[in-house]
Amino acid sequence: MKIAIIGTGYVGLVSGICFSDFGHDVVCVDKDSRKIEMLKNGDIPIYEPGLDTLMARNVDADRLSFSLDLADVIDGAGAIFIAVGTPTRRGDGHADLTYVMAAAEEIALLARDYTVVVTKSTVPVGTNRLVEKTIRAANPSLDFDVVSNPEFLREGAAIEDFMKPDRIVLGVESNRAKEVMHNIYRPLYLRDFPIVATDLESAEIIKYASNAFLATKITFINEISALCESVGADIKQVSKGMGLDGRIGNKFLHAGPGYGGSCFPKDTTALARIGQDNGVPMQITETVIKVNEQTKKRMFDKILAICDGTLSGKTVTILGVTFKPNTDDMRDAPALTILPALISAGAKLLVVDPQGKREGEALLPGVDWVEDAYTAACGADLLVILTEWNEFRALDLKKLASSMTSPRMADLRNIYSAKDAGLAGFEAYDSIGRASFGTTDG
Questions:
Q1: Are 384 and 413 in contact (CB under 8 A)?
Q2: How confident is the model over 112-132, as pLDDT tens digits?
Q3: Helix (H) or strand (E) holding 5
Q4: Helix (H, G, I), strand (E, B), or coil: what is residue 95?
Q5: Active-site annotation holder among 18, 28, 228, 263
Q6: Rounded distance, CA 365 to CA 304, Å?
Q7: Spatial CB neighbours of 94, under 8 Å, sequence gap ≥ 6
Q8: DSSP states along 363-416
Q9: Is the Cβ–Cβ distance between 16 and 92 less than 8 Å?
């Protein structure tokens, strides 16, 4: 089947490449000439492990191409996916649907034959009805259906999530459109991956509710970690004990400096506004948003405490600034809250991140970027682990400690332990919800 994907951001590009690997003829369309030129040259504007290899394979097989103009590729397309950004709108917290509606209007003006318009972007409840209404108003004679097909891709594991999904959600209300969507996802259907067919509104809510629930799990365990620190419990043991309960599960129960990224902050904010607009306040989600911001600020307090209450004139090595490992995404990363606060307190920051520099240079002015942890730690007063990249999981702690002016560590991802740090020669160590030593807060 010929498929057009509007938008070559994270969701659009990953989806387009994976659909082409299913054997479909896919054209990814974007108005950003720089991105399209990069893609035509074999370069990818995002970092996602394995995506470059998969793209090259399908380009070579003539199943995948890129274009600036939807008009050139829309003829014969059995499905057109809208995969554009829906950022939080400034001032009110709503999802900005400008790009979604612009794509709908363009489809209406260009489409001639029956097509299925598929919304892949994360959109508030009622958006797909609005897309349908917009297309109908602009081109009353067009034969089409609208489908909601939300994505559930984890950055850093997107290919695996697409090829081996927990479920595929289809908000679809005609048998004709359902058949088209089943043909698109036929390779997964044949392998018995669950396909959940719903009405449009239910599909839209499934996406927001899923992300809000996962954000809640992260925020809950972070709040419990603060209690563990107060009473002397170990958050790792608590998380393990909780996660073994099949009703709870162990995923998203890892304490850290707060959630970030392209989905959870934006989607929890949007869900809160949807609830307010419909007279059904999402009180749990609203609290999650508030507590997550408090968690980020608490990390600054921990760092300050391990430095005896002052950061002025001190050199701090930061390991990791992306919101999670295996991505270059800096959107709403805890680092964007924590690092500016450290700079304001007078600290000099040396930053190491395998992929974070591309976005981080513009977002984190005033930091110095260093290639490796050992170089960055030499002469430093404090080492802070913010992102659990694999290369930070097996560091030579003795080598680090011996090179530092003041060997102290704030392990905000619980990679090491107080015992490990003490044996390596660190004079102070703190983590999340576990034993520490040498800090002014215990």
A1: no
A2: 999 999 999 999 999 999 999
A3: strand 2-6
A4: strand
A5: 263
A6: 21
A7: 88, 124, 270, 273
A8: HSTT-EE-SSHHHHHTT-SEEEE-S--GGGTT--HHHHHHH-SS-EEEETT--S
A9: no
What the chain holds in terms of domains, given with CATH numbers, is 2-198 (3.40.50.720), 200-442 (3.40.50.720)
Q: Which long-range contacts (CB under 8 A, 24 or more apart) does 307-313 make?
A: 307/381, 307/382, 307/408, 308/440, 309/440, 310/345, 310/346, 311/342, 311/345, 311/346, 311/347, 312/345, 312/346, 312/347, 313/346, 313/348
CA atoms within 13 A on the CB side of 58: 27
408 forms beta bridges with 428
Sheet holding 25-29, edge to edge: 64-67, 25-29, 2-6, 79-82, 115-119, 144-148, 168-171, 195-198
Instruction: Tell me the per-residue pLDDT of 307-332, one tens digit each, with 9 for 90 and over.
Output: 999 999 999 999 999 999 999 999 99
Q: How many helices (H) and strands (E) does the chain have?
A: 17, 14
* Rounded distance between C-alpha atoms, residue 392 and residue 353, angstroms: 10
pLDDT digits 0-9 by tens, 201-233:
999 999 999 999 999 999 999 999 999 999 999
Question: What is the SS3 assignment for 440?
Answer: coil
Q: Tokens 């560091």 sit at which residue? A: 395
**97 and 59 Cβ atoms separated by less than 8 Å:** no
CB burial class (10 A; 0-12, 13-18, 19+) of residue 94?
A: middle
Among 326, 331, 341, which Cα is nearest to 384's? Answer: 341
The stretches of 22-151 forming alpha helices (DSSP H) are 33-40, 51-60, 98-110, 127-138
| 263 is known as an active-site residue | yes
pTM of the model: 0.93
Helix (H) or strand (E) holding 217: helix 200-231
For the record, the structure tokens of 359 come out as: 């976005």
235 closest CA partner among 217, 248, 252, 222 = 222
Position 367, amino acid? V
